[in-house]
Design goal:
This protein has about 220 residues and is mainly α. Helix 6 packs parallel to helix 14.
């Protein structure tokens, strides 16, 4: 995808500036010292999983920071009344419907969208998001050493990630997105990020398909 972790840091600073937040205020949001937060923006330190969770609860758009995507979709107001689990279910529905459409319409657009959301079946079979590393490796039929190299960590760290003994930091979450299209929002269980993921997927679909999918989601929403 050609994404660089430096781009993530550029967007982090951009978001901080757009919200008129100082580094000290960002440090308070993430429960860090100002010195440590400053190191994050200088690429001398990574945000921990828990620090990112704190950031998700702030006005900062964590989804945009990692993906660079912003939605203009104005048809998803009903999603804000949903919890994260319900949103994940809607994402699974979207994947299934697009897969169905693609069997009849093999256009490059639908193929591209399916590639982008190819992670969805992996997430849906994974009740514990920390185990996504194990699921990815098994799906790829890959040895731990190879996967560790792909993720840019040593094999001990990768084994700890698989067993849930440690959580991914901001750079590892970026690598999951860069390599496997998995947005950090699904591991962070970020509701705002999940809404953005759904919205940007819908944005990328032709209007006829989009309206059809929206109608399906709205009908499901009515009967919940």
């Amino acid at each position: 995808m050609g994404l660089s972790y430096n781009n993530v840091l550029v967007r982090l600073k951009e978001q901080r500036s757009s919200k008129s937040l100082s580094q000290n205020e960002m440090a308070q949001i993430t429960h860090m010292t100002q010195s440590n937060y400053s190191k994050v923006e200088l690429a001398l330190r990574r945000l921990s999983f828990n620090e990112l969770k704190y950031l998700c609860a702030s006005p900062i758009d964590v989804y945009y920071i990692f993906t660079g995507r912003v939605s203009n979709n104005q048809c998803i107001d009903f999603l804000y009344s949903c919890n994260y689990s319900e949103l994940s279910g809607y994402l699974n529905v979207i994947y299934a419907v697009i897969l169905y459409y693609h069997k009849k319409d093999t256009s490059k657009q639908l193929k591209s969208i399916l590639k982008r959301i190819s992670y969805v079946p992996l997430i849906m079979q994974n009740d514990n998001s920390k185990n996504i590393f194990l699921i990815l490796r098994h799906t790829m039929n890959c040895r731990q050493k190879k996967m560790a190299e792909e993720m840019g960590v040593d094999i001990k760290k990768f084994r700890d990630l698989e067993k849930g003994r440690c959580l991914p930091d901001s750079e590892l979450l970026w690598r999951l997105y860069d390599l496997f299209y998995i947005p950090p929002t699904v591991l962070l269980e970020d509701k705002a990020g999940m809404i953005s993921e759904i919205a940007t997927i819908l944005d990328a679909i032709d209007i006829d398909y989009r309206e059809s999918i929206l109608n399906i989601l709205k009908n499901i929403h009515k009967i919940k």
